[in-house]
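Z., the sequence and structure:
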Amino acid sequence: MDPRVITDMFVLGLPIAEKILRTVIIYFFIVVGLRLAGKRELAQLNPLDFTVLLTLANAVQNSIIGDDVSVTGGVISASTLLLVNYGMVRFVFEHPKLEHLAEGAPAVLIEGGRLRPDRLRRELVSEAELESAARRQGFASLAEVERAVLEPGGTLSFQGRVPSAEEARFSEVMDRLERIASELVALRSR
């Protein structure tokens, strides 16, 4: 076996401190960038959003690795990313005020059964995307939704409409009328 193979795989092309610093800088850049890009980039991925995230990963790869393509360098970078992320998650968890700053606030897209077009526009969520997400959660249409919230992590949560007393009574009366009508049909057919 050629000794250069071992050297190329395991000997760092950059000092360890530079490798770690590059990774930390890129980590924070991506966190801030995704925070500024909005919630939909995180969970509600359409093909365009997915392409951007893949391209972003590729774009910052060279910034992290520099001239170092060794396995050791990759392990150091990956370990640094995991450790920094773990530290940030713990730090934000222990400081709830920072959690709001880091993750943002939920955005109410439907309130009181009424669509909020201004909020949809601000969060870049189309009515069709919202309706599709509602169907995935068991709603036939947005008319059945009392409240829809785009959570800081990018997920959409829905709360169904509770019929008013008048609507419930109307539905009950209609059900009774249908039963009576079917009983009449059954009696006439005898």
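The longest helix spans residues 71-94. The longest strand covers residues 145-150.

Let me know what you think.
H.
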